[in-house]
């Protein structure tokens, strides 16, 4: 599953694994790309002040 996701997103299985295991910080733009390209979804972010 990690390898397929990585391929869809243009990244490596190792990077996906590091994200899943909290071993790597992730940029919001990268998370959005993984969700969009890898999972076919959209990220919605809400800020309440």
Helix content: 55-70%
Q: Profile the largest sheet.
A: none
State the low-pLDDT regions, or none. none
Q: How many domain regions?
A: 1
By helix and strand content, what is the structural category? mainly alpha
Gap between N and C termini, in Å?
38 Å
Shape annotation: globular
Instruction: Figure out the total of helices.
Output: 3
> What's the helix-strand series?
HHH
Oligomer: single chain
Query: What's the overall average pLDDT, rounded?
Result: 93
Based on CA atoms alone, the radius of gyration comes out at 12 Å
Number of strands: 0
Which range does the strand content fall in?
under 5%
GO molecular function: DNA binding
Organism: marine sediment metagenome
Protein name: HTH cro/C1-type domain-containing protein
Pfam families: HTH_3
Word description of this protein:
There is one protein chain. The protein has one domain. The protein has 3 helices and no strands. The protein has helices spanning 2-9, 13-20, 28-39. Helix 1 packs across helix 2 (13-20). The protein is globular, with a radius of gyration of 12 Å.
Topology readout:
Blueprint: H1 2-9, H2 13-20, H3 28-39
GO molecular function, one term: DNA binding
Organism: marine sediment metagenome
Pfam family, one: HTH_3
Keywords:
globular, single chain, HTH cro/C1-type domain-containing protein, 3 helices, mainly alpha
């Amino acid at each position: 599953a990690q390898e397929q996701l990585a391929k869809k997103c243009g990244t490596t299985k190792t990077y996906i694994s590091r994200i899943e295991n909290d071993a790597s910080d992730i940029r919001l733009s990268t998370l959005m790309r993984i969700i969009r390209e890898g999972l076919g979804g959209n990220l919605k972010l809400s800020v309440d002040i």
